[in-house]
From TrEMBL:
Keywords: Cobalt, Cytoplasm, Magnesium, Metal-binding, NAD, NADP, Oxidoreductase, Pyridoxine biosynthesis, Zinc. Catalyzes the NAD(P)-dependent oxidation of 4-(phosphooxy)-L-threonine (HTP) into 2-amino-3-oxo-4-(phosphooxy)butyric acid which spontaneously decarboxylates to form 3-amino-2-oxopropyl phosphate (AHAP). It is found in: Cytoplasm. SUPFAM superfamilies: Isocitrate/Isopropylmalate dehydrogenase-like (SSF53659). It holds the Pfam family PdxA. The gene is pdxA. The keyword Metal-binding applies. This is 4-hydroxythreonine-4-phosphate dehydrogenase. One of its GO terms (molecular function) is 4-hydroxythreonine-4-phosphate dehydrogenase activity. Binds 1 divalent metal cation per subunit. Can use ions such as Zn(2+), Mg(2+) or Co(2+). Substrate binds at H144, T145, K287, N296, R305. InterPro entries: PdxA, PdxA_fam. Its EC number is 1.1.1.262. The lineage of its organism: Bacteria, Pseudomonadati, Pseudomonadota, Alphaproteobacteria, Hyphomicrobiales.
Amino acid sequence: MTPGQSVVSPLAVTLGEPSGVGPDILLMMMAAPEAALPPLFALADPEMLAERADRLGLAGKVRIATIDRPEAAGDAPAGALSVIPLAHRHGETPGTPAPANGAGTLEAIDRAVAYALAGRASGIVTGPIDKKALYDVGFKHPGHTEYLAELCSRQTRGTLTPVMLLTGPELSCVPVTIHIPLSEVPKQLTTELIVTTCRITAADYRHRLGIENPRLAVSGLNPHAGEKGAIGHEDDAVIRPAVEILQAEGIDAVGPLPGDTMFHGPARARYDVAICMYHDQALIPAKTLAFDETVNVTLGLPIIRTSPDHGTAADIAGTGKARPDSFRAALTLAWRMARLEANAARIALPA
Ligand SMILES: NC(=O)C1=CN([C@@H]2O[C@H](COP(=O)(O)OP(=O)(O)OC[C@H]3O[C@@H](n4cnc5c(N)ncnc54)[C@H](O)[C@@H]3O)[C@@H](O)[C@H]2O)C=CC1
Ligand SMILES: NCC(=O)COP(=O)(O)O
């Protein structure tokens, strides 16, 4: 290390549901000779990974190095995949999600978060979980996003509002309400929630992504943003006041904009991030425009967390058909964010 250079800890990777494509895409990335991956370690079952590598014909290309702590990731031979084994079982037939894997899936997430909170990992990159399989074993959170906020709030000792950002080369967008039924959206959408979500988005764009004054485009909820109150009242009664509050605070926000006309090319050029009112309003355009490159980022946390935009893809797990691109983009972005954070910390140090 040269004087003044920051040490950035490796990224902690979790695989999500092991019968999905999480193991496949990690192994495929490691096997790609052109891959210049950031330093990382996985929390996983090394035997399951070895079996999957065998199934995918990658056994000769990926060496698995079992380690016992994050700090040992740097000691593994060049190109080897460093793996910290889990205490719980975490292996299953590809394509067949098993509730019995739930404890291992959650153990990996819990330990990755603990390492990140302790500064022993510079961030976490999570593979996709099978949400229903976890619900069936008593998991009470809709997804990672909400669970990570709960885990981190145990350390920060205050409730955290997690914000889901989907970011890709063509579009970045945030759903204000996340994993709730569509029928619940108008009930749970409040001016306060929109304002809070936008404040967190603007703040994290600044300190996590290096964009000083992000331009926020806030969508409407109803067709044509309510058509001046003729097609729904939420746009004028709930969303517009939120935009006015944000503008008064100096946040560059416009809206409510009709949802059907804010995603075409020239419209997208006018903002950095679209603030959408519900899950599919945000995720349909993001995944349609760039399914293979879009990354899911959780804002509003004291740790860095990214994830590929896709799910477990159980229909192609273990076949070699999964594309690792979104996972690779998630690793690259997490590493960029980690280096930005390390540099900012270094600049903030007293001389
Ligand atoms: N971050 C997370 O943990 C996420 C988890 N999920 C979970 O994943 C499960 C399955 O969700 P679905 O809606 O079916 O979405 P999905 O993304 O798993 O699959 C949708 C379609 O896209 C294909 N696909 C997905 N990823 C691919 C890849 N890397 N390469 C090539 N093709 C790919 C699949 O084969 C499938 O045909 C659900 O339990 C859902 O909750 C979904 C999204 C994110
Ligand atoms: N559709 C996006 C998604 O489900 C991601 O959820 P999370 O597990 O990252 O919270």
